[in-house]
Amino acid sequence: MKAIDMHCDTIQKIYQHPQTTLRENAFQIDLLKMKASGTTLQNFAMFVPLDEVEDPYKTCREMISCYQRELSANADLIRPITTMQEFEENQQKGRLSALLTMEEGAPLEGRLDRLQEFYDLGVRMLTLTWNFKNELGYPNMLYWDEQTQTLSNEQKGLTETGIRIVQKMEELGMIIDVSHGSDQLVRDVLAHTTKPFVASHSNARTICHHPRNLPDELIQQIAERGGVIGINYYEDFIRPEGNQQSLVAGLVKHIKHFRAVGGIDCIGLGSDFDGIEENEELADIRAIEKIEQGLRDAGFSTDEIEKIFYRNVERLYTTCFS
């Protein structure tokens, strides 16, 4: 079955290991595995870990150059897209598609001209925060509070700069991604924007109580906005520590919960491959067939599975890129 994956960190792996290629590698995603899996469109995130890099902007630009080199070298298999018309053309010609995204807002340094710069480079989705506070807002993780000089997880959301950035993103046609963001950040995005947005790689907190997962309140509101939430394959976000349930069964449980809370139209895929630890059960992108079978075994119809695998994301991209 066709599939669209809203999140992976494969380009960071290739950037860190320049002897490797996107075409074929030992990572969780490469182009040959992607083609074998039925995945027609992969979001490639430029993941900038603030605890490891000195200059987020420089690192992000270097990663984009890496991405561009890999796509140019493999133009027989994959082409970048910035519109759904380009995606349709790639499908008609039997090519894979790549969507350039960013995971971390710090390279913007809070500047609207930087946002325009990255848009002009082809970025069509931005994860506002990773695990650290930046100029745009706060994550759903512990952060250093300068006022109290302590680690805190107090619910702070978008900054004033962040509000300006998300409003400009809507104007440009760049999709807002709230994965990693605090609950309040998601509420602030809802309050200051009007278009659908995504949580590209997040699960349900009711099923697995982890701060990176979404509470029911926000699942429902993202769904009501017409947004899509990408199911994350990371073990710690799927099942509580000590739970020995299979990962596929766990993912199906999250998907059932999303369907019950937000409806089938809010669910997508966001593997987080090459940003998560290897697991034998979900070894690489080809494991998607296990998820399809798990959903069928749980009584999901072909229509529902198609929505989860690609149609919901196609709908959202068509809306947001227009």
TrEMBL record:
The record's section on CDD domains has: rDP_like (cd01301)
Biological process, per Gene Ontology? proteolysis
GO terms, molecular function: metallodipeptidase activity
Known InterPro entries for this protein?
Answer: Metal_Hydrolase, Pept_M19
Q: Which domain of life is it from?
A: Bacteria
Q: Protein name, please?
A: Peptidase
